[in-house]
């Protein structure tokens, strides 16, 4: 149970009802972080616009690399909501979610490619208690993904750190997106 209850549709104004409807259509349920943030209308608008713009701008990296790095952050921070939602997003992208069980062994597991390993190690370095990114790591990532790809990866990892830490602080836990309890959106 979240530390702050979700704002109910019955308490919502026109904008929030529309936002909830769009979220339900897209994800099968209103994501709890959105419904909790809805208590602060200015932050909700900021949150929604930021998420949409970040999603639209993030097209340089292969989806598997981006989504694995974001998922890794969620597991490192311990945000069960983010793990649940991230697994559902990967499933809808048509990515292999079975290998997520091997994420802790990414450095040696044949389930992950070299570019994925580089991104996962970067996510670890950015998500540690103290950031431990090296110049060599950044240079290697830039060679692998180009400058735009490196910036996108950095941004997405930092964004997931923010999401995961906020959700964890607010007591948000998995919502059933992976199990299908929350998400009734059919796979593409």
Automatic annotation (TrEMBL):
Molecular function per GO: peroxiredoxin activity
Domain of life: Bacteria
Domain Carboxymuconolactone decarboxylase-like: 55-124
Protein name: Transposase
SUPFAM superfamilies listed in its UniProt record: AhpD-like
Matches recorded under InterPro entries: AhpD-like, CMD-like
Pfam families in alphabetical order: CMD
Organism this protein belongs to: Amycolatopsis rifamycinica
């Amino acid at each position: 149970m979240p530390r702050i209850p979700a704002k109910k549709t019955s308490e919502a104004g026109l904008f929030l009802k529309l936002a909830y409807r769009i979220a339900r259509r897209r994800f099968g349920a209103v994501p709890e972080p959105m419904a909790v943030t809805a208590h602060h209308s200015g932050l909700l608008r900021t949150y929604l616009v930021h998420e949409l713009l970040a999603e639209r701008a993030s097209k340089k990296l292969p989806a598997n690399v981006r989504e694995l790095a974001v998922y890794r952050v969620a597991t490192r921070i311990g945000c069960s909501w983010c793990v649940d939602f991230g697994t559902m997003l990967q499933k809808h992208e048509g990515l292999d979610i079975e290998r997520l069980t091997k994420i802790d062994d990414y450095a040696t597991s044949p389930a992950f490619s070299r570019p994925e390993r580089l991104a996962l190690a970067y996510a670890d370095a950015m998500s540690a208690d103290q950031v431990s990114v090296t110049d060599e790591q950044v240079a290697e990532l830039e060679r692998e993904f180009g400058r735009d790809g490196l910036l996108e990866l950095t941004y997405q990892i930092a964004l997931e750190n923010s999401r995961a830490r906020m959700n964890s602080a607010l007591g948000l836990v998995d919502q059933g997106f992976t199990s299908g309890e929350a998400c009734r959106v059919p796979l593409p």
